[in-house]
Amino acid sequence: MIKKSIINLSIFSLLALSVQAQESKLKVSQTTNSDKSVRLNFEKTDPGTQTLVLNFREINNSSGSLTQSFTVSGYSGSFLTLNPTNKNQGIGLSYSYRYIRGKFNPKYDNAFVYLLPYENDVQVKVSESSFLGATYFGSTTPEDWKVYRFYTKDEENVTAARKGVVVEIVDTFESDNAGVAYTSKTNHLIIEHSDGTLATYRGLKKGSFVVKLGQTVFPGTVLAKNSKYGSNDRYNISFMVSYLKSKDLEANSSQNNKTSKSYYGFITPQFFTSEKPNVILEADAFYTVAQSKDIVQKEFTKKELKNIK
């Protein structure tokens, strides 16, 4: 008999440095083949990459490490086949698994240049968001922590800063949170890039989303509208680029909000602006959105370039 259990670790646990159980977005099943081998399969609710950590409590008539990790993408597939040691007997096993969004330790280009996440010629004021774990729970801010907030004078369309696939959309909460210092009830969108990094756009207006889960978006593609989100009565979004740096998904099981650690690393991106072609943004400075054909088309496939022409 095969027994299993699951734990889902959300990317947003990194904001408060806590792990919360959620409705399962990834499920593992198994198939016994005619040769008595067992194939382990997955099904997911989104096409994004997840790191799946499998822990065997017991395994009989087969060999392999008791703890194994896998990178799974797409909505479904197989990730492991167990072969019987004694081909005349079946395999008995008991296991649990955990999973977390992202590809573990991806190779990314730290000098990659992004577009500002608004339409051309819009002027934005930049601020940097503090680490909520330090602000509210007394934990230590990660050394590489970087989350920008982009303010605009009027309500504006939020656009993709880089090509990628939409892997998560939350369009549930009322958008006007002006005057609230912190709330987890904000609409957001996550785009996974080809190098495994994840861009999170948070503070989007309810009902304004114009992209769908699984859609490939390009630099400048309209995603949704910004909202009056946060302690200032101004239209804005927060923007973060992160990557999965730890797959030790049991590390925080005995920790609290103060002592737990983030599973994610954070990137300080460079941006193309009207003022400079590639710049690391400064807090409280103003920048004007600009676009470059080279940057917009940098990650296009040959087919995508042909379609443009």
List the topology elements.
Blueprint: E1 6-9, H1 13-16, E2 26-32, E3 38-44, E4 50-60, E5 67-72, E6 76-82, E7 92-101, E8 113-115, E9 123-128, H2 132-137, E10 148-152, E11 157-159, E12 164-170, E13 177-178, E14 188-192, E15 198-202, E16 216-217, E17 222-225, E18 227-230, E19 235-244, E20 264-267, E21 270-272, E22 286-288, H3 293-296, H4 302-308
Parallel strand pairs: 1-7, 8-21, 13-18
Antiparallel strand pairs: 2-3, 3-6, 4-5, 4-7, 9-10, 9-22, 10-19, 11-17, 12-14, 12-16, 14-15, 15-19, 18-19, 19-20
Structure characterization notes:
The chain starts with 5 loop residues before the first strand and ends with a helix. About 6% of the residues have low confidence. It is mainly β and 309 residues long. It is built from 4 helices and 22 strands.
